[in-house]
Predict the structure of Fe2OG dioxygenase domain-containing protein.
Amino acid sequence: MEKVLGLKNKEILRLVEFDGMQSINMINYPPCPQPEKVIGVKPHSDTAILTILLQANQVEGLQVKKDDKWVLVKPLPNAFIVNVGDIIEILTNGLYPSIEHRVVVNPKQERLSIATFLNPNLEFDIGPVSSLITQQNPPKYKTVTSKEYIKGVFSNEPDGKAYVDIMKLY
Ligand SMILES: O=C(O)CCC(=O)C(=O)O
Ligand SMILES: [Fe+2]
């Protein structure tokens, strides 16, 4: 991604190279006889840098929002799904938007997923990287310390792309 964008000084990589943080969510979705009445995980984007996700027992349920429609992500054997998180959207000044997703439940089968979230080293600020900012392309997002960013994540309920909207300047 840095190569494609022509970024210098490891402007993305430095967030994870030393003391980046990883956390894991293992989720068991029991079968639900009335799946239309419940939601497994409500619509949100991941506030991390990237998410690496395994639909561990190959049962579908994950959907991503594309052109305002929910699209099913078919489980593939031995394949990981990589979701762009809000931090990549902010660092790239919107060039790589984070993906909104949700999980619906299955009437018959239980579903297991394992999501690994790549989170930033707390030493660096979160904001658009300087090599992507020019007079013609001014920052679209605020720059905050990682601690402020994480504090904001925990004080806002996951809700669509609401948190990345809070980080927007206009
Ligand atoms: O269970 C899944 O497939 C996704 C879970 C998820 O979106 C999350 O934990 O942030
Ligand atoms: Fe998620």
Observations:
- Strands lie at 21-29, 41-44, 50-55, 62-66, 69-72, 81-84, 101-103, 111-119, 125-126, 144-145.
- The first strand starts at residue 21 and ends at 29.
